[in-house]
Amino acid sequence: MKIDRLLAITVLLLGRKRVTAAELAERFEVTMKTIYRDMETLGMAGLPIVSHQGAAGGYEIMEQYTLDRQLVTGREIASLLAALKGMHHALDDRTFASLEEKIRALLTKTDEQDGDKHSAELVFDFHPWGQGPLNRDKVILFRKAIRERCRVRLRYLDGSGEESFRSVEPYTLIMKGSSWYVQAYCTLREDYRLFRLSRVMQPVLEQQTFVMRNPPELETIGWKQEWSGHTEMEVILCYRPEAIHRVLDIFSPDQIRYEADGSCRVQACLPVDDWFHSMLLSFGAQVKVLHPPSLAEEIRRQAMLMLQQYE
């Protein structure tokens, strides 16, 4: 509906500095002519939209403009409060508790009752299973380093088990799946890296500060294959039916094909490293490597070494 699109465009403009008509047309699956009409409608409704011409042109809303709070429903506020509670418990930061109180102060009694009805729909817990307060202490240390622009000295174990001493310039903490990472500039590698906090040991704040560089945008950053030191290869794995619930935890649905006998076959291009070997061995007799032969032989070799431990 047009009114829904107009509201969505308004929210999008409030969250971004500038957006082109072509981007809006692609996002909402309409023609650019429709976007031009929408912008005219929003302007006539009193929204202070500014149009810029040229290669860097586009639409934006004047900086001081904000939406009325009444456009946010009690259900939406309940979802926001649930996320804030999760962050407060994960980081033990009074800032999130204070923000939660401020948002609650904006609620009317009707909104509060509506929010309470939906408060149990979402629970955010950013503590991975089985991890104690040590991981949270690392998160707190790196947050302090990011705010104060301090380097952090640490020992790190990479995916191959190699230990190294690093001095890093942290920029952003990232929750990826159930694990915390920190995006940082590594002075040893002279490049940006994602460090998994569970593998960070003995982090210490250094007195030396650093000048803000230009880190990659988080929307485009991804795990670079050269970081693990292993190339990807095509693998085909056959899992028994009793292992499927674990297979779904590890692989994406498009990599899984279900067989008539209840088993499943996984086919994908993956980095075959020590972690991958350990993952396969953890399935025991519930998995068989069909391809490549070199991987099947390596799993057989490691299984024989395990057997020798008990002879």
Topology, please?
Blueprint lengths: L1 H14 L5 H8 L3 H13 L4 E4 L5 E4 L12 H18 L2 H12 L3 H10 L14 H16 L1 E8 L5 E14 L2 E8 L4 E6 L3 E10 L15 H4 L3 E8 L4 H7 L5 E3 L5 E8 L2 H8 L5 E5 L1 H16 L3
Antiparallel strand pairs: 1-2, 3-4, 3-7, 4-5, 5-6, 8-10, 8-11, 9-10
Helix pairs in contact: 2-3, 4-5, 4-6
Q: Quick summary of this structure?
A:
The chain has 311 residues and is of the alpha+beta class. The chain is 41% helix and 25% strand.
Structural account:
- The mean pLDDT is 81.
- With 311 residues, the chain is of the alpha+beta class.
- It has helices at residues 2-15, 21-28, 32-44, 74-91, 94-105, 109-118, 133-148, 225-228, 244-250, 274-281, 293-308; strands at residues 49-52, 58-61, 150-157, 163-176, 179-186, 191-196, 200-209, 232-239, 256-258, 264-271, 287-291.
- The chain is built from 11 helices and 11 strands.
Order of strands, main sheet, comes to: 6-5-4-3-7
Topology as H/E string? HHHEEHHHHEEEEEHEHEEHEH
- Binned, the helix content reads 40-55%
Uncertain residue segments: none
How many strand elements?
11
Shape descriptor: extended
Strand content: 25-35%
Described by strand count, sense and barrel closure, the largest sheet is: 5 strands, antiparallel
Number of helices: 11
Rg on CA atoms, Å: 25 Å
Distance from first to last alpha carbon: 71 Å
Helix and strand content put the structural class at: alpha+beta
Question: Which key phrases capture this entry?
Answer:
five-stranded antiparallel sheet, four-stranded antiparallel sheet, 41% helix, alpha+beta, extended
